[in-house]
């Protein structure tokens, strides 16, 4: 989990324009993901002013200040808002920047950023980005591959063939998210996201070959920065004494933070093509989510057969 995000990172990732304070972007740090829309503050109520948040001005805030406040009142209010802890002022919808806001920002060294996006869209984009960056993270040993749009986390003991399986899936047209180490974080109540650490991004280690650059070898379409994790496939060495699920009705789950992810265990044995099996597992998982359950079809067919035989 990052303790803070620089305003420069926010600018680069949300594609904001810098109206004032280019030299301040590296210095200013954002420590909370919540965004403030300063409505009450414009009425001079500062008792609970969240000074540590990014302050977002939309049509409502800009119009109210212009129509209902004098120039001196606007300047005094903006000065109170521009504290040493305030990361940035952001103005949406391509609105003109009030001269009083610019003066207050310059006096107190607060950058002013702008965007042509609507206030609600910009608020959502900034919140999602900051929540992702500031969220608690867990590091998982495994491969994360996007298969037919599903994020599949492949886990298993070291040396069992996770990286080789990921390479096989990439050659089939699927996309690598992370090799060896996957950083996972909870985006919301139902969504778990995985990504690669920066040092390992787009790289894949194959024993006997070394490290390969997947994007360089297979093209930009073979990699992706992050994805939701929808399914965990655990690879386990074949053991005659271990009972593996044969019908698909013994679903396990693994919990990360507050999110439970479905998990299946696939036995590894010489001659089994894991790429084929994991592709089929991903398609079967998607079919179940769309309402088609092959296990239920089998059960229904079996019950029908028993019923037919019992009437003869």
UniProtKB/TrEMBL annotation:
Residues 267-272 are annotated as: Important for the catalytic mechanism of dephosphorylation. Both phosphorylation and phosphorolysis are carried out by the same active site and suggest a common mechanism for both reactions. It is an enzyme of class 2 (transferase). Its EC number is 2.7.11.-, 2.7.4.-. Residues 133-301 form the HPr kinase/phosphorylase C-terminal domain. ATP binds at residues 156-163. Belongs to the HPrK/P family. One of its GO terms (biological process) is regulation of carbohydrate metabolic process. Keywords: ATP-binding, Carbohydrate metabolism, Kinase, Magnesium, Metal-binding, Multifunctional enzyme, Nucleotide-binding, Serine/threonine-protein kinase, Transferase. This is HPr kinase/phosphorylase. The Walker A ATP-binding motif also binds Pi and PPi.
